[in-house]
Amino acid sequence: MSNSENSIEIKASTSKSAISKKTRQKALNELQISENLKKQADELTVEYKFEDWNHVDQVLYAYAKIKGFVWRLQNTYYRVDKSISKKVFECQHAGKPKPHKSNDPDKIRATKSIRVECTCYINICWPKNDSNPRVTTFESQHKNHDLNITTAIFAPS
Ligand SMILES: [Zn+2]
């Protein structure tokens, strides 16, 4: 139905998003993964500190690209002042398959959900009194699907 499940989903803040979701998506797709960013993605673990939410997007994008999967922004939490306090990303294959509306059994069989209950997810929190957002939970194991590792990313430049 939508193609959003095939890409990183970035929920725009309802209040004051300077750039649209589409623009951010495009910016991420065109982002060159620098050696530095690759290194940061390699170090991604619990307690890893980011500079800001933009940096979170960049490192997570690099991480997913290197590993061969796609994140889905599962939820965003806001403080009273509308700034972001927490983001939860999960693998696009996480979650239960969406129930199908059709009663036609042939149709149900033909429609494969990309959600196969993969368990990979990451919590990133930015407590109000902290200077940086950081990883609080990271389940890096994937389940029930393959990773599409692209060799191109490791090619020498
Ligand atoms: Zn997965």
From TrEMBL:
Residues 62-148 form the FAR1 domain. This is FAR1 domain-containing protein. It comes from Gigaspora rosea.
